[in-house]
Batch of 4 targets.
Target 1
Amino acid sequence: MRKPTAILTPNEITNMERPDKRACDQLRRISFIPNVAPHATGSVLVSFGNTSVICAATIEEGVPGWMRYQKVEGGWVTAEYSMLPYSTLSRKPRDSSRGKIDGRSSEIQRLIGRSLRAVIDLKALGARTLWIDCDVLRADGGTRTASITGATVAVSIAINALIAEAKLTHSPMRKKVAAVSAGIYKDTACLDLNYIEDRDASVDCNVVMTEDLEFVEVQGSGEEATYTDEQFQAMLALSKKGIQELSALQATAIAAAESAADADHLADLAKHFGG
């Protein structure tokens, strides 16, 4: 029988050996490089360790036909998610070459859309459609959590641009939202799993929360295993810690996007890719 995982003490966290030597309650290195897609209303390259995703927010005038037909007031938020062919160790075929989107991508883009709609006042957005595009450049675990966290930054930048252009009088985003993974790896609760940990974890959990730690969505499943309430609470405790840290980093990135020049963003981008 698998040994139950207790809520970890600081000493237990410090002594846990992970593939990348992080403590069990430690996020990977998180970075945000804003304005990487000039034609989007707002964009950011977000990295969770070796996982890198370009998140772009494009705001268009007008709403989907079903909203006009049903006379639904306000705007709409929708998302698309894609892993680029070179994002994984072996080439991943494009959805267009198969003629349909795969089930995993469909599930993730629906999650991204739900997460942002939970914190955006659609009526305050007006009769506009907010498109969120998340394209994975490199996958090393946690692409959905990086996408949600980065999309929030991209959307915030886009909304600030509309306010600056006097197209909005105030932000329809009521709160920021972020996401992080946690799991049971080697019988221990760990935060922000990379690919090796995610592959070998007996339990994997993705948590989406607002900056004030209200839940948006929790996805948790045992990988040919079950898990106890104690283990679940340990993963939630780690996730809350991670969300608080991510929210602070998001706020810094949004503020930096407004003040930095394009040349600064290009320099950050070159540095990120080793230039």
Note: The chain has nine helices and nine strands.
Target 2
Amino acid sequence: MGAILPLLLVLLLGGLWTAYWFVGQAGAREGFERWREAEARRGRELTCAEHRHAGFPFRFEVSCRDAVFTLSGGDGVTTVRIGEIRAVAQAYAPTHVIAEFSGPMTVEAADGATAEASWTIARMSMRLTPEVDGRVRASRADLAVSGPILNVIPVSGQTAFAYRADAMEAHFRESEGAQAAAGGYDFALTTFAPVIDLPDGTARGADRFDVLGRTTGIDGLPNGDWPGWLGDWRDRGGEIFLDTARLAFGQSLVLVDGQMRLDGAGRPVGAINLTTAGVDLGNIPVDDMLGLSGVAALSIGALGSPVEVEGRSGSRVGFRMNDGTLYLGPIGLTDLPSLLR
């Protein structure tokens, strides 16, 4: 009798766990379908060539092979194709989801422009909370990509630019307190050894690029109607606060910080500070003086204010955006277009 009781206990626990898993798997399947229906109502539709649920006994797994997202809105339909998406959650923590993505990925815009992406490994960790209307709210998302490559093709057969790097990381989380209630999210982005290939055949590389900031007024993902989504974001009082964008290459540093919102006409309003240290003006090509390097040169010259940057002597210059114009001090540099058109 003493040996039978432990066996009966094990069988009972196994039966209870099996029942829990099948109930949980049924809930996960129903939740996934409700999420797809909710997204489709908002113009974001997901289809799979092969859709599978698995993971017994300790995990809940959902896989979607040859995934196709169609984002309907604005001037047409944007189509995103991904080789495979596989999402896994441990049975004891179903709201913590790990997603793995298999490439390649292509994005086809309504106007014919295309972007092609590939990678070695792409993995995302997410903390999800189901909503009563079928949507899923992500309180945190962390993406890590090894060997990312991106080609942007505005016209068939012509590459506008290409991006590649050793690795890239992106992190998003809900802001705390009042900022969370206002649709606030903190974000961070890091790319290691990034290289941009330009249409003229030249390449620009850096050691590392970091972005840190936050935004308010976020209420769901866009559905392809970017002007409409940005207009709603503006109407909710949305703002972007850039704590720092840090570009490091050799002994040189370029830092950007500031904040931005949209005015009634959809034009950017705000301020941007550009800080440089260790930039060698002798290495800036003459034909690039009106590009990013030329703007950096301005900040080093007489218009900049001397500052100390990470223990180095540097210079800072401030820009402001107002009434549809980008200003450097009192000087209007260029007109700013509406982002709602």
Note: The longest strand covers residues 59-73.
Target 3
Amino acid sequence: MTLSPIKIPVIYPEPDGSPMAESDSNRDYLVYGVESLKIHFQDSEDVYVSGNLWLCYEQGVSNAVVSPDVFVIFGVDNRPRKSYKVWEEQGKTPDWVLEVTSSSTRSKDEQEKPVTYARMGVSEYFQYDPSGDYLKPALKGRRLTKNGYSTITPKYLENGTIVVPSLVLGLELWLFPNGELRFFNPQRGEFLRTYREERERGDYEQQRAEQERQRAEQERQEKELLQQRAEQEQQKAEQERQKAEQEQQKAEQERQKAEQERQKAEQERKRADILAAKLKELGIEPSDLV
């Protein structure tokens, strides 16, 4: 009787809930990388963005695993996973990887992982050192060629900012002089944000919209007040015109009355002259009648 060998199931690593980032800054940039890229690709159902996740790249080999800090895979479902097993994903491996380098990972990030990622076919491999102690410069990008990885030539801005383009992502990675890393979308001319930054931006936009509404309302009220004031001035001017017209009419009436009095006096004078002439014809002096 031949005994069949006992098959021991291969146990692949799964997340245990413990933090893997070495420092606050490493964790913060890991979160920034994952969240900002998730938001950037949120409308694409076939783009998977993750980080700090076990990626098993060889079936049956439990230690054939890596855990990229941030990675992007095109052509697979955008859904949550406990771990990423390449053979369950139609053989799709990451297209882009970012490792946040620290004192404990610098050797692997510089020597072992480039070899592993090149074998996996990772098109672009980026490294970032938040402290600036282990990489010079603190941001480095590599692009896969037939002869292995070649360094992506960075661009230097006048203020000292280093810009490294990613053809895979269609984005640029900016390293500011203070060591801060940001993804930049050259098509939209803006930097990528985390969920918290998106909320803060939404709150800011809402506050700004409210301020604009209040400003517009104030301008409307001021315009309405000016219009009312103009109407009041117009009414006042009309009243003044009518008053002046009435004064003019009254003056005209006074003039006409004075003219009538003058004419009446003139008629009385003429009548007196006629009477005096007739009295003289009769030989009577008008003064004798007084």
Note: Residues 143 and 157 are 22 Å apart (CA to CA).
Target 4
Amino acid sequence: MKIFLLGSGPAGAWAHAFLDKGAAASAAKPEIVIVDGLAPHDALVALDVAPTDILVLAQQAPFVSDGAPADVSIDAVRHEAQKAILAIELARRIPQTLLLHPAEVAEWPQLITGLLGVNSSEVPPLAEPLAIGLVAADESAAVSASQSPSPSLLRTYLAPLLTAAEHPASIVVAWSRDCFLYGDAPGEGLPATVELAGRGRILAYGPYMPLPQGHWRATAYLGFSADVGSMPFILEVDTDAGITRGFFEVKQGGIFTLELDFEVTDPFHPVEFRLVSQDSALEGLASLIEIRLEQSPTTGARV
């Protein structure tokens, strides 16, 4: 029996210690591989080299609870998203997954001993882990000059990824306007409305966040002012698999949706969307409201 343990903070440390105690009491003497600390790509390669029987997840849930720190940087969110995506990719590849939920701490010893096929009385007791709900202060990155994440990014992107390992078949996340950057002022946050007057150009881009491997459908919610006239635009997504483009023409003001199917081959590669105006304009306003992303095994990349 081979067990992969992906854990962090006190929860991960406790699970590691208890698994070691349980393995010593087990007749099967399972091999335990600690994933935390391995590069995400290396962890997936290790599965290809030697298949694993069981995945144990004992991760923290940083930045998403009511007590989460306020000074979280955008880079810290990307880091936690990569860890969550690693859990998703491992759960998809390993036959059995045991999730150690923070709300069920008292049941963890029985869950692990049952997994190992040993009697709980044969394993020396271990004090329950503390402070399971939040990442330790030294594990989070403080806000710097970089863009800081909005609460919506934590709620509509990171939180669904953190819970998706339990049901990894279909995932839905969303990136709101304040996740994106302004094409006319690179590095600055995207304003609520963008002036179209001037040459054709990139109006909005970002958010450089990773997504799990597979086929995705993006639904972009876009707004245009009544004076926009007739104007062509491009919405494109850049992943490690290439660039997928959707062409559309706006002929009147209003709120519109545009669907774009694309593929993610590298789940740890940052994904970038770009909203591009193709022609010059004298007037008009545009707004990138939100991009909703839904993963489905039946969708395919389409140009």
Note: The longest strand covers residues 214-224.
